[in-house]
Backbone:
């Protein structure tokens, strides 16, 4: 049985800052905004060919699904290739090789002249526009962003199916402690191992050229590439100060503790985290069944 995933994320045209903030930013509700980039230079000229011609010699770090392990962090790429070789490979057809959190601007400052940060919201962290490239059928496995900022993910070439989950489901998604990942496979959920998944509800949308997905702070995302392509993310601060503290703590403390403990304890650390994630979900499931015997699928907010 697949997870319960609805197609409830709206697609809207650009609206005023006041309307965006009141309807989506402050309530932290995901939405797709059409046309934020189409008329800017980036929307007109950025494509795979453009990057081959302008940045083809840059060495880029590749995340290769065939080498991916759920007990290792996402921070380090598996190997490097020249950007040109990588782009030629993804152009040829399906491949599960991705460029994740690629800071293209570090290598080519002129890219900054091709776009402006959206004005429908404030608090953009202007030093951090990241790019994400992938081959047709690549998958970015479900995770939360550790800095807990809100993300505007704009699609240029190709399409992406994006599935989002409210952070209120983190325990029932079996989030590993000290980390923003989970061992669950949302494409093939194992309800015996992860019974909490029965209570989890996702929302999906397909992101196309010129569309920007607003992902609120802490929302889990799983991404499937439909056609080789790329997008760019721009981040802004969450409206909730507690997310700033959580994000700072994740970046400065949790992720480092996790890496060090994994180095020292190896599998023992991973097994400990897996057990703790199971325990947290089991406790929450008990709480749900005692609190609400009338409506089975209700999760505390
Ligand atoms: O588009 C992707 O492959 C990943 C995007 C992502 O994880 C993010 O914007 O935080």
Residues:
């Amino acid at each position: 049985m697949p997870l319960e995933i609805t197609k409830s994320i709206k697609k809207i045209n650009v609206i005023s800052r006041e309307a965006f903030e009141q309807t989506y930013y402050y309530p932290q509700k995901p939405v797709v905004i059409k046309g934020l980039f189409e008329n800017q230079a980036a929307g007109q000229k950025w494509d795979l060919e453009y990057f081959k011609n302008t940045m083809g010699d840059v060495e880029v770090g590749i995340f290769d699904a065939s080498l991916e392990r759920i007990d290792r962090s996402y921070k380090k790429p598996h190997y490097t290739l020249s950007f040109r070789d990588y782009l030629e490979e993804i152009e040829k057809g399906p491949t599960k090789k991705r460029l994740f959190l690629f800071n293209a601007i570090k290598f080519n400052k002129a890219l900054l002249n091709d776009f402006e940060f959206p004005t429908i919201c404030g608090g953009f962290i202007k030093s951090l526009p990241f790019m994400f490239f992938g081959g047709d059928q690549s998958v970015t496995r479900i995770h939360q962003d550790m800095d807990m900022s809100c993300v505007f993910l704009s699609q240029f070439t190709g399409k992406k199916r994006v599935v989002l989950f409210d952070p209120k489901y983190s325990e029932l998604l079996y989030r590993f402690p000290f980390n923003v990942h989970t061992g669950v496979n949302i494409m093939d959920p194992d309800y015996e191992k992860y019974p909490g998944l029965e209570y989890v509800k996702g929302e999906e949308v397909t992101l196309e050229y010129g569309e920007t997905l607003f992902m609120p702070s802490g929302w889990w995302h799983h991404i499937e590439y439909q056609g080789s392509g790329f997008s760019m993310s721009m981040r802004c601060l969450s409206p909730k100060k507690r997310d700033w503290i959580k994000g700072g703590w994740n970046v400065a403390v949790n992720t480092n503790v996790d890496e060090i403990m994994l180095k020292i304890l190896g599998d023992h650390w991973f097994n400990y985290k897996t057990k703790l994630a199971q325990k947290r979900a089991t406790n929450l499931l008990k709480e749900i069944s005692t609190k609400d015997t009338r409506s089975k699928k209700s999760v505390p907010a």
Notes: The mean pLDDT is 93.
